[in-house]
Every structure is written in C-alpha cells, then in structure tokens.
Amino acid sequence: MTVQPEKASAVVESCWCCGTQYSEAELVRLGQHPEVGVCLRCARWLQRRAVQRLDERHPSPGGRLRGGIRAIRATVIRKGWHQRGQLGVLLRWLDRHLP
Length: 99
Description:
This is ClpX-type ZB domain-containing protein. The chain is an alpha+beta fold and 99 residues long. 51% of the residues lie in helices and 12% in strands. The chain has helices at residues 40-57, 61-79, 85-97, and strands at residues 12-14, 21-23, 27-29, 37-39. The strands form two sheets. Strands 1-2 form a two-stranded antiparallel ribbon. The longest helix is centred in the C-terminal third of the chain and has 19 residues, at 61-79. The chain starts with 11 loop residues before the first strand and ends with a helix. The model has no long low-confidence stretch (mean pLDDT 89).
C-alpha cells in the first residue's frame, strides 16, 4: 500500500470586507472566528478605524495629531491628489508610513 501525496491546491477565498478574491496567504483570520478572512488592505483599514475610535474615547495629544493626519488624508483622497503622477506616488508612499 502506498500513500498518495497531497496535491497542492491554491484555495481562493473572498475577503469578508471588500469581497475580493485572495489566496489563503493574503488573508488574516479572526481568532475566535476562523471562518472570517480579511485581506491585508482591509485589515490595515480596520486597524486605522480602531485607533480612531480609541482616540475618540480617550483624548490625548497623540490622538489629536492622528486626527489631524486623518483629516489631511481625507482631503487628499477627496481632491484626488493621490492619483496625480509624482505627487500621487509621494503621497501614497507617505500614507504607508503614517499612522
């Protein structure tokens, strides 16, 4: 009797937040609900929303600074500056490094 090797299957699942299809390696699972998979981009968005809620509940100088950054980020997105050539490249790079 021989054992058949398992076939490597690339399971593709949807993000519970945005609905986009991702491989398992690109999803973050929730601890008590492993059936819930969130893509890395949505996980980052959720993390920013969680920090925003904490800042609202517990005001601090750091929270006010993060609030200012959020307001500037919203303005940039509303005006579409993040999609403008080299300025957009710079703004998207900066966004990845800000809270």
